[in-house]
Amino acid sequence: MGARDLSHAVGVQNWVCTDMGGTSFDVGLIRGGQPVIEREVVINGRIYNIPTLQMDTIGAGTGMYVTIDPITKRITIGPESSGADPGPVCYEMGNEVPTVMDCVLIMGILNPDNYLGGKKKLNKEKAFRAVKEKCADVLGVDPYYFADGVYRLINSRMKEHIRSVLYARGFSPADFNLLCFGGAGPMHLAGYTEGLPFRGVATMPWAAGFSSFGCAAEDISHRYQKSTPVLIPPGADGAYKMLMGQLLLNVGWDELEKQAAADFAAEGLPWDQARVQQIAYVRYGGQMEDLEVISPVSRINSPEDMDTLLAAFETLYERIYAGVAKHERAGFQIMELGVTATVPKVKPRLVKRALEGKKPPPEAVKGQRQVHYDGAWGQAAIYDMDKLRPGNEVHGLAVIEAPATTLFLPPGRSIRMDEWTLMWLT
Q1: Are 95 and 86 in contact (CB under 8 A)?
Q2: In which order are the strands placed within the sheet that holds 220-232?
Q3: Contact indicator for 280, 342 with CB cutoff of 8 Å
Q4: Is the CB of residue 293 less than 8 Å from the CB of residue 372?
Q5: From CA 364, how far away is CA 380, in angstroms rounded?
Q6: How far apart are CA 156 and CA 158, in angstroms?
Q7: What does the pLDDT read at residue 94?
Q8: Cβ of 136: how many Cβ atoms within 10 Å?
Q9: Which of 19, 50, 114, 47 is nearest to 404 (CA)?
Q10: Residue 324 has what pLDDT?
Q11: Which of left, alpha, beta for 212 (phi over 0: left; psi -120 to 50: alpha)?
Q12: What contacts 137, CB < 8 A, 6 or more positions away?
């Protein structure tokens, strides 16, 4: 929901949304400015017609346990996680099994004195002992070399997950921008996007609170859906289009809106303030997948109204896929229709700011720190994320710190903050 709001504000229509926290890595899609909705979900082996945001999740977070298989001597990340309690070893809350976060900490990427803005001190020495004794010594390798390997391994796991989510649905990264959020996301962003040809890769200073932003950006909204058998063959005349529209689409929309009005009354919501939007799920004849089309007309009162609805589908289809993929000669099918009823509420407002110079202001520079990456130690420049200005650029090797997240830039990678305060990785 937050990505949809951001999409409308900045004018980017297609996003791959990635959320990395302590236990999971979640991937969702925004196509044509709208989140992808699954109209049927499987719960306990049963299929339910419950509209649900499409989300693909794997176990990959900074709280994942890192262990060595006693027989194969292979590194295992997860599937168990330390969670927030007891948390990683560096939390000093009882856990003695090293985690991904402990590895990143000893590499120097995380600042032990700036976690949650300094409210929680991380024990780097204890994390180092756990990684060394329980993992690196078992394999006979340097602890920092081992930690670097764990960092790369989990990044590779997340990159392959993104690749599979897109390619399994017939999409290419070249058609999408990637949006990174979650408290741990920016720390791994350069790693899990490496080699994937996205149009752009972005994160933001409020990455750790982006899900909260999404909740705040969402109006009070109800959605209703029902099946309908609408078929518009190629060359259909006006009378046939009117028959399909008035007998099936209009009657279905009427029924759903009456249900919505009754629910609003039961919940004490003002129906007279509701914004009602008609939806049709349209596909070309013979295709297996349809697209959710927000109808530009509230009712089909003329053949031209039906043409307008179908034209909206083709415009959306061309934006998501390509113009050459359009197939009007197959006709059109509408197998389901829907209605959303929305009451607006006060929402956060994204502010567009003037661009300033490329060089960050002096107060944004915090100093330097040794960071272990790619088998060697390097002197990383440290920046305060909250003090970067639109237009500023930062080049790796660098670490950009905020109270609730950390953005790591390996050598050869840079970020540029745009007028919306999005930080674009290049």
Answers
A1: yes
A2: 220-232, 332-343, 275-284, 291-294
A3: no
A4: no
A5: 14
A6: 5
A7: 92
A8: 21
A9: 114
A10: 67
A11: alpha
A12: none
Give the per-residue pLDDT at 48: 84
Domain positions in the chain: 64-153, 221-343
Identity of the amino acid at 267: E
Between the two ends of the chain, the Cα-to-Cα distance in Å is 26
Cα–Cα distance for residue pair 78/55, rounded to 1 Å: 20
10-residue mean pLDDT series, the chain (426 residues): 90 94 92 82 82 86 93 91 90 94 96 92 96 95 96 96 92 94 95 95 94 90 90 91 92 96 94 94 87 92 94 88 76 92 90 94 96 95 96 96 95 96 96
Write out the chain in H/E/C secondary structure: CHHHHHHHHHCCCCEEEEEECCCCEEEEEEECCEECEECCEEECCEEECCCEECCEEECCCCCEEEEECCCCCCEEEEEEECCCCCCCHHHCCCCCCCEHHHHHHHCCCCCCCCHHHHCCCCCHHHHHHHHHHHHHHHHCCCHHHHHHHHHHHHHHHHHHHHHHHHHCCCCCHHHCEEEEECCCHHHHHHHHHCCCCCCEEEECCCHHHHHHHHHHHCCEEEEEEEEEEEEECCCCCHHHHHHHHHHHHHHHHHHHHHHHHHHHHHHCCCHHHCEEEEEEEEEECCCCCCEEEECCCCCCCCHHHHHHHHHHHHHHHHHHCCHHHCCHHHCEEEEEEEEEEEECCCCCCCCCCCCCCCCCCHHHEEEEEEEEECCEEEEEEEEEHHHCCCCCEEECCEEEECCCCEEEECCCCEEEECCCCCEEEC
Q: What's residue 323's pLDDT?
A: 65
> Nearest to residue 148, comparing CAs of 164, 136, 133?
136
Are 23 and 61 in contact by the 8 Å Cβ rule? The answer is: yes
How much is the pLDDT for 290? 85
188, 21 contact by CB (below 8 A):
no
pTM greater than 0.90: no
pLDDT at position 321 = 77
| Spatial separation of the C-alpha atoms in residues 226 and 337, rounded to whole Å | 6
Structure tokens at 348: 């956060």
